[in-house]
Structure formats: structure tokens, C-alpha cells
Write a structure and sequence with these properties.
The structure is a single chain. This protein is of the alpha/beta class. It has one domain: HUPs (Rossmann fold, 3-Layer(aba) Sandwich), CATH 3.40.50.620. Strands 4-2-1-6-7-8 form a six-stranded parallel β-sheet. It has a two-stranded parallel ribbon with strand order 3-5. The radius of gyration is 17 Å and the shape is globular. The termini are far apart.
């Protein structure tokens, strides 16, 4: 009798800071894809980010706090520890080698799906993992027209996307950082431990 195939999700991001939409996406992926485990990976040196990220130690700590109570989530530090540019394809290859026979599911948020065609070796990513995207990112094509290459219906890649049903959550790290800079409350957007960490370390403050 053969053992069941392990179903492993992979959710990466800057998590600068992690917020409630990240948690909702993780919980949706675990439930809808019937995952045995979801690896959450804060990025290291993000080649595609024009904005300088917060220190890796802060983003890692906030990510651990944010996902601490989500069953089946494992915060994976490998991209933070990796020297040089961080590429998702390298992480997927490592996970495949470490978990032979496992089925990999790459979980993307709306913003990531829009520019998936610009990712390093995106064709190889699609061969290694099943790409799963928050439904709004692949159903609202008029919103997916920004960027150098997007995930609209004219792009062949969305044919390989598996939709995840997600509530409409107008939350973003950009909005949270702006609220902090404007001395506004962020508790409706992040968990209490993350809000406390941000306050304790005075992250994202402009003055």
C-alpha cells in the first residue's frame, strides 16, 4: 500500500509587514488545497523590489508572530539566510529535493500574480509547482493591466493558475506603512503581536 503524497504549499513575500490578508490567503490555501504543510518564506534580497526592505531580522520576527497560531504553517528562513538575490525557482528546487514525491503548490497573492511573467525562470516554476492564485487576481482582468508583464487573460500563464477563493480584503503593506507614517492605528490590518512589535521597534516611522 503506497503512502499518500504530501501536499506542500509555498507562500513567499517581503512581509514588510505581514498583515491580515496574508493570513487569509494562507488559511484559504491550506483549506482549499488540503495542504499537509504550508511553508511561509520571508524573502531575502528581493531582486524585484525597488524599495529598501526592513531588516531581515525584523521581517522574520514579524512573520513568526503573524503566523504563530495558524495550524500547518512552518515559517521557513532559507531565503533570509541565502546569500545573493532570492529567486523562488531556487527555493522550489530545494524543497523538491528535500521532499521527494511531494506535490508543491506555489501560493500567490494578487500583486504577485499580475507580474508573474517577469519572474526569474517563471516557466520552470510552472513545471515544478501548481500555481495557485487569489481569485480576484485572475478574474478581474481590468485590474491586471499594470506592470511590464501581467497575468491577464491574454497571457498564456493564467491557463496554469489554480484559483483560490478569497474575500475582498483591501489591505496592503503599503497602506499599513502609510498609516504608521501618518500616526494612524494599524490594528484593523495586522495582528496584535505584529502591531506591538512594530511599535516596540519604531518600524516604518518617518519622524
Amino acid at each position: 500500500m503506497s503512502l499518500p503524497v504530501k501536499r506542500m504549499g509555498v507562500l513567499g513575500g517581503a512581509f514588510d509587514p505581514p498583515h491580515l490578508a496574508h493570513l487569509a490567503l494562507a488559511q484559504a490555501a491550506i483549506a482549499q488545497l488540503k495542504l499537509d504543510e504550508l511553508r511561509v518564506l520571508p524573502t531575502g534580497q528581493a531582486w524585484h523590489k525597488t524599495r529598501k526592505l526592513s531588516l531581515a531580522e525584523h521581517r522574520l520576527a514579524m512573520t513568526k508572530l503573524a503566523f504563530a497560531d495558524v495550524p500547518k504553517v512552518v515559517v521557513d528562513e532559507r531565503e533570509i539566510r541565502r546569500e545573493g538575490a532570492t529567486y523562488t525557482v531556487d527555493t522550489l528546487r530545494e524543497l523538491r529535493a528535500e521532499n521527494p514525491g511531494a506535490e508543491l503548490f506555489l501560493v500567490l497573492g494578487e500583486d504577485q500574480a499580475r507580474v508573474f511573467g517577469t519572474w526569474h525562470e517563471f516557466e520552470a516554476i510552472a513545471q515544478i509547482a501548481i500555481i495557485c492564485v487569489a481569485a480576484r487576481a485572475i478574474l478581474t482582468n481590468d485590474e491586471a493591466t499594470s506592470g511590464t508583464q501581467n497575468a491577464s487573460s491574454s497571457d498564456p500563464m493564467p491557463n496554469h493558475f489554480h484559483p483560490l477563493k478569497m474575500p475582498n480584503m483591501p489591505v496592503s503593506a503599503t497602506l499599513i506603512r502609510a498609516r504608521i507614517a501618518d500616526h494612524q492605528d494599524i490594528l484593523p490590518l495586522v495582528t496584535e503581536p505584529v502591531a506591538r512589535y512594530i511599535a516596540n521597534y519604531h518600524l516604518f516611522e518617518t519622524t
